[in-house]
Amino acid sequence: MEDYQIMYDVVIIGGGPCGLATGLALQEKRISYVIIEKEAIVNSIVNCPLDMRFYSTSDRLEIGNIPFLSQEVRPTRTELLKYYRLVTERQAINIKCHQKVEHVSKDEDSYTVYTVDRMGTNSSYQTRMIVIATGIFDHPKRIGVEGENLDKVMHYYKEGHSFHGQDVTVVGGKNSAVEAAIDLYRNGARVTLVHRGDTVYKGIKPSLLLDIRNFVEKEKIKFYPDSSVEEINETNVCIQTPDGPVTIPNDYVFSLIGYQPDTTMLQNMGITIDSQTLVPTFNPDTYETNVTNVFLAGVVTGGITNRVYIEDGRFHGLKIAAEVEQRRNRQALKSS
């Protein structure tokens, strides 16, 4: 095992926008840190549709007071990836990508974070404090039906070209599902949209509303409201509708019903979690959890409530950095 002898002040687990913002806040105060990311930087954005344009304006996605100028007010996925990549490079953010955290051990006054990379190489990082900024988008919610594990069932949508001429069922009623259904139709797929709610016209981006209403009302996209998928097999999808069960031909399924945090690591570290909302216990003034010297940053603080986004989570690191600085100064006084 490769053993990093340096003792960091903070190890940040998760290299999304909020993890990067926390690193920048610590860096500004000359607090030593390293970010551990299991895949690429801002991997949740990597998994967004290729042609996606974000609803948030570019200024609300900035981190570290570094301006983000996009061609239009609302940036594209490509523009946002480029921005975070350039910030990482130019600010020399200390991040280790493609290293998965295997477990965390607690010593008397420090922690050791153990990781493994894609080649199977093990590493460890010693730290006084930990910030968990793992987000939620790596863990899609499950429908919980037979056939959900088939290869044709996907939980992320990239682009529609590959599905031209195919029977595609989209499950969900929020922005991601509606946007996928529209794009699939425009790329020549035969699209069915299934939603347990009575409408998909509420709470979605205004830019999607006109199209989805037009396509549904003209039956270019077949919509089953107040319905749920009951079974998926290689050739069909069985849907329970208000008028009874319906079986439709199917080649692919996009289950886009949302995401939730993986609370395993948090619980293993002793962080208490609300069983209904999956919101972890933390101090809103410092973002410290019920476990001493373990903090949270970003959307993981919201559990499954969908109340925390990049726009809010990017500021969590400022409070964490201020608290870490105070503790470091107090420790320095004790040692002097």
UniProtKB/TrEMBL annotation:
Molecular-function GO terms, alphabetical: thioredoxin-disulfide reductase (NADPH) activity
Enzyme kind, highest EC tier: oxidoreductase
EC number of this enzyme: 1.8.1.9
UniProt-listed Pfam families: Pyr_redox_3
Domain of life: Bacteria
Signal peptide: none
Cofactor(s) annotated in UniProt: FAD
Keywords: Flavoprotein, Oxidoreductase
Descriptive protein name: Thioredoxin reductase (NADPH)
Organism name: Peribacillus huizhouensis
